[in-house]
Write a structure and sequence with these properties.
With about 270 residues, the chain is α/β, with parallel strands linked by helices. About 35% of the residues lie in helices and about 15% in strands. The protein has 9 helices and 9 strands. The strands form 2 sheets. It has a 7-stranded parallel sheet with strand order 3-2-1-4-5-6-9, sandwiched between helices. Strand 7, helix 5 and strand 8 form a beta-alpha-beta unit. Helix 3 packs parallel to helix 4. It is globular and about 55 Å long. The chain binds D-galactaro-1,5-lactone. The site of D-galactaro-1,5-lactone (15L) has 7 residues, from loops.
Length: about 270
């Protein structure tokens, strides 16, 4: 049992985590800019907070916190001005809160920090960052902030480069990227449990037979149990909407605003 702070508690993943963390016996301070849509679980408290409001975020650590689970963000591709407050300023504020509270931090990064790697490439956690939009850029920034705060301030963190976290996979791409909710909880519990966390990046992915991402550090103690392959027959032949989506790991996020073909290039993804 520990005292946790969860940002983004009213979002799709946050709601699931709130219920599961409470059921696992954790005391959780839930925060989000939106009201919490469910009855607040036992051992939990909810506070409405705008991550861009530095003083309010820093005050969240006043009662003491053992670990911060930072899931709050604009979670889809948006204009830079729209991700700036929650994802850039907000993440900075949350890191400062964790630093002041001497808490470890689990950061919900995303596969969109590396989305412009081609499909079929098998990547380790230390692969090059290749963000596929402003959203992915903010996740790459969060991972680098984690590195800076560990090297300069000793803040321990785990950046989870989450693929597609959903109750079940629904697209062909998800056969590689799916993270079950149970495996997400296994990842978080591993990050809370491991004695020396240091500054790690881990793929947020289940044990998918078609995964593009290799878990290279067994010392985290994450043992995924689910595999999207169970859904393959229904999904593997579903068409992709366009060649850019089909070519890159980040899928549809890569295609948003993609205009390489405008400069005379023939538009074949990956040929530049
Ligand atoms: C993400 O990071 C998004 O938050 C989510 O909406 C999905 O698009 C997911 O990545 C994905 O790549 O499937």
């Amino acid at each position: 049992m520990s005292r946790l702070l969860l940002t983004g508690a009213s979002g799709a993943l946050g709601r699931q985590l709130a219920a599961r963390l409470a059921a696992a016996g954790h005391h959780v301070l839930l925060t989000d800019i939106m009201p919490f849509p469910d009855p607040v679980p036992e051992r939990c408290e909810f506070r409405a907070v705008d991550l861009a409001d530095r003083e309010t975020v820093l005050a969240l650590g006043a009662a003491g916190v053992d670990a911060v689970l930072h899931f709050g963000a604009a979670s889809t591709e948006r204009a830079f001005e729209e991700v700036l407050g929650p994802n850039i300023l907000g993440t900075h504020h949350v890191f400062d809160l964790a630093r002041a509270a001497k808490a470890r931090l689990i950061f919900a990064s995303s596969n969109h920090a590396i989305g412009f790697h081609e499909r079929g490439e098998i990547l380790d956690e230390d692969c090059a960052l290749r963000p596929d939009g402003y959203y992915g850029l903010t996740k790459a920034y969060g991972e680098l902030l984690a590195r800076l705060y560990f090297d300069k301030h000793g803040l321990e963190s785990l950046s989870l480069r989450i693929g597609t976290c959903a109750p079940k996979p629904t697209q062909a791409r998800h056969l590689s990227t799916w993270l079950s909710l149970d495996d997400l909880m296994r990842l978080i519990e591993a990050g809370l449990r491991v004695e020396r966390l240091g500054c790690r990046v881990a793929w947020g992915v289940s044990a998918n037979a078609r995964s593009w991402w290799r878990h290279t550090d067994p010392s985290l103690g994450y043992e995924p149990q689910d595999d999207a392959e169970a859904f393959a027959a229904a999904l593997e032949h579903l068409p992709e909407p366009d060649p850019v989506t089909a070519h890159y790991q980040g899928g549809p996020f890569c295609a948003i605003g993609y205009d390489c073909a405008d400069d005379g290039w023939d538009g074949t993804p990956g040929r530049r």
